[in-house]
Design brief:
The chain is 72% helix and 2% strand. It has 531 residues and is mainly alpha-helical. It has a 3-stranded antiparallel β-sheet. The N terminus and C terminus are likely disordered.
Length: 531
């Protein structure tokens, strides 16, 4: 690949929006922390952090609180810390190479392998989008009283309006996201402070323990917090800033302030997620329900959700109830029964803000992934049409199927969180292998300490996935002859899954594309202003 061709590819990736100046011409003389520099780099972290607050995360939060109390706060914290290190690698890859993760994967992999990784990533994006559409539809249902499938249609149209903010510039888009993030913060923390747990209860939640009934919930938390498509998004979002890649100090400065930006954004995300966990732990957690035949929450017997299957009686805060499952669909009614109607509508507004922002960000992530792997220049409008159609059909189907079974809609959301966990290696492995390579990253390759931390995170994810698949297959023993079919299909899928992961190890980084990466660094200022 000639340097001229590489230069043309990089320039073709640029869009109409002008890049944001970072004023790093004199970065060599910069202070330990320069507020003006930080402000110029801040923003990609806001876009990235929305994936940590999407409806899937909120469902995992409320289920963690309602099923396990405050016992898994340490899992939530470590998931955010692990997410920070992964996002740090994604930002460094973009800052150093001038390309996003999907583009670097395409340059380093044979076409068939790149397409396999692309399909796996698209599956994760579609799963996330379905969950976000359903979550936003639930918010519309609470606020307007419309059917769930109608709320899905509303969500399909409101994404176009929010994406229009991108046409007014990167800062406008980041401002819209900041407003929605502020709405979530206010709504969820007001609900939390209505009846907060004690400081001792919160403190015990950070002591690592794993009750036997909490393992699946912990796995769902990992899958919900660290999203595969978010790694691709962050590697592209940082490219909206002007960085002269011929100047090592400017690249170092970009890495520094992008890390601070990501860290501050994820800390805010943790506080918001913790507020949701604490609110539902205080109102719905009962040990008798946690250890029932089905791990469940303590609901008021008069609530609508209690009519869909119960697993015993319980008591929370001196109020008697019944053990039943909880999800996004039933969470608002549960809050109304315990804290009043105001908390229900605050929850709905926060959920709506989470759904609107996450559907918008997922669309952007899908655009970067599609353009990067397929080398296609697809307009945002076209991408929105594609993603909305792909997500709306199954989302509406789930909405119609759950009209008579709230438990069905809640279980779908829980398994979509697990899907994210299973697909996560197809984002983790590429970003780890590429940023570990000195041929790709030069002097900015991962240190041994950073590499060790990130590979430990990857190993934990792989172990969690293996446990999950094994448990599902073990439960199939009660299906009789159908278990044989399930085991056969699972074996085929497992072979394909593992083969794709082996292919990622084999081809990343590709020696043939290493010179291309260095050529990108030598171009100087390269921007990818699609945001």
């Amino acid at each position: 690949v000639s340097r001229v061709q590489i230069h043309r590819q990089a320039m073709a990736a640029q869009q109409a929006l002008p890049p944001i100046s970072t004023n790093t011409e004199n970065a060599e003389d910069a202070k330990l922390f320069d507020w003006q520099l930080f402000v110029s780099y801040a923003g990609p972290g806001l876009l990235m952090c929305i994936a940590y607050l999407d409806p899937g995360n909120l469902e995992a939060d409320l289920q963690q609180g309602a099923y396990c109390g405050m016992a898994l706060l340490w899992v939530l914290l470590l998931s955010h810390v692990a997410g920070f290190f992964i996002q740090l690698l994604a930002a460094r890859l973009g800052n150093v190479t001038g390309k996003n993760l999907a583009q670097v994967c395409r340059d380093n992999m044979p076409w068939p392998m790149a397409m396999l990784v692309y399909m796996m990533t698209e599956i994760a994006i579609i799963g996330a989008d379905i969950q976000e559409v359903l979550g936003t539809a639930v918010a519309w249902r609470i606020l307007l009283g419309v059917d769930l499938w109608v709320g899905c249609i509303f969500t399909g149209f409101d994404a176009f309006m929010l994406l229009g903010a991108g046409h007014f510039g990167t800062r406008t888009l980041e401002g819209v996201v900041m407003v929605l993030l502020g709405a979530m913060t206010v709504c969820f923390w007001v609900n939390f402070l209505r009846d907060p747990p004690t400081g001792e209860e919160i403190g015990r939640g950070f002591v690592p323990t794993m009750p036997h009934y909490a393992l699946r919930v912990a796995i769902g938390t990992i899958g919900a917090v660290i999203m595969p498509h978010n790694v691709y998004l962050h590697s592209a979002a940082v490219l909206s800033r002007n960085v002269d890649r011929r100047n090592a100090q400017q690249v170092r400065t970009a890495n520094k302030y992008c890390a601070i930006d990501a860290g501050m954004a994820l800390f805010l995300c943790f506080l918001i997620n913790m507020a949701v966990v604490g609110c539902y732990a205080q109102q719905f957690f009962a040990p008798t329900c946690a250890t029932a035949s089905v791990t469940s929450a303590c609901f008021s017997p008069s609530s609508e959700r209690a009519t869909f299957g119960t697993y015993g009686s319980c008591s929370v805060n001196g109020k008697s109830g019944v053990c039943t499952e909880i999800g996004l669909r039933s969470a608002g009614d549960g809050l109304q029964a315990t804290l009043g109607s105001t908390t229900k509508y605050l929850w709905a507004v926060g959920l709506l803000a989470a759904g609107l922002s996450s559907t918008m960000i997922t669309t952007y992530a899908g655009q970067f992934v599609m353009e990067g792997f397929l080398n296609l220049q697809v307009s945002q409008r076209t991408r929105v049409v594609i993603t909305r159609c792909v997500a709306l059909v199954p989302a509406v189907a789930v909405a119609l199927a759950s009209s008579k079974s709230t438990a069905f809609a809640d279980s779908v959301g829980q398994w979509l969180n697990v899907l994210q966990s299973v697909q996560l290696p197809f984002a983790l492995l590429p970003v780890l292998l590429l940023t570990d390579s000195q041929a790709i990253m030069g002097n900015f390759a991962n240190s041994r300490l950073l590499s060790g931390i990130c590979w430990t995170v990857a190993a934990i994810v792989f172990s969690v996935n293996g446990w999950l698949v094994g448990e599902l297959l073990w439960q199939a023993d009660g299906l009789g002859t159908r278990a044989i079919v399930l085991w056969t299909l699972a074996s085929i899928v497992c072979i394909g899954y593992c083969s794709t992961l082996v292919g990622v190890f084999r081809y990343l980084p590709s020696k043939a594309a290493q010179s291309a990466a260095f050529a990108i660094q030598n171009q100087g200022q390269t921007n990818y202003g699609t945001l």
